[in-house]
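INFO  loader      accepted 1 record
INFO  loader      residues=103
INFO  predictor   begin
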Amino acid sequence: MIQRLAKGVLPSNTQVQKDAVLALSKSATVFVSYLVNSANDRAVLANKKTVQPKDVLEALGELEFEGFVGRVEAELLSKCWEGGSRVVPRSTSRRCKHEGSLC
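INFO  predictor   done
INFO  writer      dumping tokens
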């Protein structure tokens, strides 16, 4: 999966060494662990037992990854609405399938 993701953003003639894929995989594991721990801390402070998307987005900002917030929000919204629309204004009658989330 990591190799596919890496190749998806690189020029088609770029090769990725196996050791580089391993380094990317380990880096992703460390990053996700760091992020989910921070998001969980935010949830616990709010007396919640469940980490929600807003906790993750706030953790990104807290960890100084503000540059990722917009893209992550866009990805969440593109996957969130029922009916297949990529962008649905909040004022429509469609309901988000993730109750209580950012949608």
